[in-house]
UniProtKB/TrEMBL annotation:
Keywords attached to this entry: Amino-acid biosynthesis, Aromatic amino acid biosynthesis, Lyase, Phenylalanine biosynthesis
Presence of the UniProt keyword DNA repair in the record: no
The reaction(s) this protein catalyses: prephenate + H(+) = 3-phenylpyruvate + CO2 + H2O
SUPFAM superfamilies to which the protein is assigned, alphabetical: ACT-like (SSF55021), Periplasmic binding protein-like II (SSF53850)
E.C. numbers: 4.2.1.51
Organism ancestry: Bacteria, Bacillati, Bacillota, Bacilli, Bacillales
InterPro entries: ACT-like_dom_sf, ACT_dom, Chor_mutase/pphenate_deHydtase, Preph_deHydtase, Preph_deHydtase_CS
Protein name (database record): Prephenate dehydratase
Pathway where this protein functions: Amino-acid biosynthesis; L-phenylalanine biosynthesis; phenylpyruvate from prephenate: step 1/1
Keyword Kinase: no
Domain of life: Bacteria
GO molecular function, one term: prephenate dehydratase activity
Amino acid sequence: MEKVGFLGPKGSFTEAAAKALVPSNERVPFRSIPDTMDAVSEGKVDHAMVPMENAIEGSVNITLDYFIHHQRMNMAAEIVAPIEQHLLVSNQNLTSWDEVKKVYSHPQAIAQCHQFLRKYLPEAEISYVNSTAAAAKYIQENPDESAAAIANNIAADAYGLKIAQRKINDYENNRTRFLLLTKGDKPFSNKLISEETTYKTSMMISLPSDFSGALHQVLSAFSWRKMNLTKIESRPTKTGLGNYFFIIDVAMKRDNVLIPSVCEELEALGCGVQVLGSYPCFSWEELQNIGEKVVETKST
Ligand SMILES: O=C(O)C(=O)C[C@]1(C(=O)O)C=C[C@@H](O)C=C1
C-alpha cells in the first residue's frame, strides 16, 4: 500500500485533503510541513500532501520556500478544499467560551479568524502551534485550562471537544489549495482523471536583472500565446533585499509546443526558467461526487 505523509496529528485539514485525493493510501502524520516533505525524499512515504495557498491568507510561504530552496519534488496533483474553522473547547469551557484566556491554533488558521478574535476574544492570548489538529489535541489533554482551539469538525470529533462557535473564519468562501508531491516524474494516474479534468503547469522564473519592463516582457511571452495564468507570486530569493523570483501557474497541461516555446523565449530574454510540475486539478466537491458514483456503480 502506498503511503502519504501529512501535517499531523490526525484531524488536520491536510489529512482531510489527503483522504479525499488518495483515499487508498496509508496516511502518516508528521510534525511539520518540511518534515512531511523530507519524508518523501528519505523514502518514508511515497507522497506528501501539503497546503499551498489559502483564499483568505494567500500563499503558505513555508511550503513554497521549503519546496524551492530545500526539497524539489514533482507536483503530482492539486485538490482545493473548503475550510471551515470552528472554535473548539472542552466541556468545562462550553458555556464560558467567550472568557477563555488563550486560543491555540496554526498561524494560517489564526489569520483566517482575526476579526472573530478581535470581536469576541480581544483579551485572549494567541498561542501558535504546529497545526489546527495539534491545537485540538492540546485542549483534549488540558481540559481544565481556560483555553480554546481553532480547528475543524473532524478534530472536534477525534479529540472529544465541543464546537462553541461554528464557521468563525472572517470570510465566507474559505478554501485552501493543497498539492500532492511525489519523488520522480511519475504522473498522477488514477480513475479520478477524466476528459474534463483541468491541468496546471507551475513555473519558476527569475529575472536577469532589475531593468524597467522586465516583468512586462515575461508576462507578454505568455499573453501573446494566449496562455492563461491562474497565479503569479513573487518570493524573495533570500540572497539580498530586493531580489525576487516568480512562481507562475499556467492553466494548461505541459505540452510539446506552447510550454517549450515560452521557456525558450524567456531564456532568450535572459531569464532563468524551470518547470516545477504539471498536474491535474480537483475540487473537494467533485471528488465527493466521484466517490459516490464509484460506490453506486459497485453496489449495482
Ligand atoms: O493546521 C492544519 O490543519 C493544516 O492542515 C494546515 C493548514 C495550512 O497550513 O494552511 C491547512 C489548511 C488551513 O488553511 C489551515 C491550516
